[in-house]
Write a structure and sequence with these properties.
Blueprint lengths: L1 H20 L4 H11 L17 E2 L3 E2 L5 H19 L3 H34 L3 H10 L5 H10 L4 H31 L1
Antiparallel strand pairs: 1-2
Helix pairs in contact: 1-2, 4-5, 4-7, 5-7, 6-7
Length: about 180
């Protein structure tokens, strides 16, 4: 329970710093996540993280199946909230651009990142394409705060918002399919 409280408090602190410094909230959230997670292992005596959400499948914040259900709920809330912000009138001018970003952009990202990960980082083909399937998603949680802070033309803003929201379920589906393909094969 202490870990859950720590995550919530650190998230509130990150949001406050973002508001105070007029930055997108994703920046302090990423920095705090890195400090508490991977960077903290360099400075703790036993090499453990300061906040460990899952440990050995039995202890931690989400023991057993709890993490699966928590993440499923969180993802569904993010996708539902993103869909509520869409306006059909925005698509009239930029619909073809959004369609191309979602189809061609997804294919280019999937195959380009897969090949790049394989050849640049010497990863196996399976891991390379699993990685590429995960980075297909731009996500409304990243795009929306940036759009609030950067003044863009209405059409460009609409394209980025629609693409960020519509690509989420596509990226999730591709990642699950690639993972299942790897697991079965």
């Amino acid at each position: 329970m202490l870990e859950l409280a720590g995550i919530i408090i650190l998230g509130i602190i990150a949001q406050w710093f973002a508001w105070r410094l007029k930055l997108p909230a994703i920046l302090p959230l990423i920095l705090i996540g890195l400090l508490v997670g991977p960077i903290s292992t360099l400075y703790t005596a036993d090499g453990s993280k300061l906040i460990e959400p899952v440990w050995n499948g039995e202890k931690g914040l989400f023991p057993g199946e709890g993490l699966y259900y928590f993440l499923s709920l969180a993802i569904s809330i993010i996708l539902f909230e993103g869909g509520l912000t869409l306006k059909r009138s925005e698509v009239r001018n930029v619909g073809p651009v959004i369609s191309k970003l979602i189809t061609v952009g997804t294919l280019v990202t999937f195959f380009g990142a897969g090949f790049a990960a394989h050849f640049l980082f010497d990863l196996s083909w399976q891991i390379s394409f699993l990685f590429s399937s995960l980075i297909i998603v731009t996500g409304p949680t990243v795009i929306t705060p940036i759009l609030r802070n950067i003044p863009l033309k209405k059409d460009i803003s609409a394209v980025l918002k629609w693409e960020g929201i519509l690509i989420d379920p596509i990226g999730a589906l591709v990642a699950v399919l690639v993972f299942e393909f790897i697991s079965v094969g």
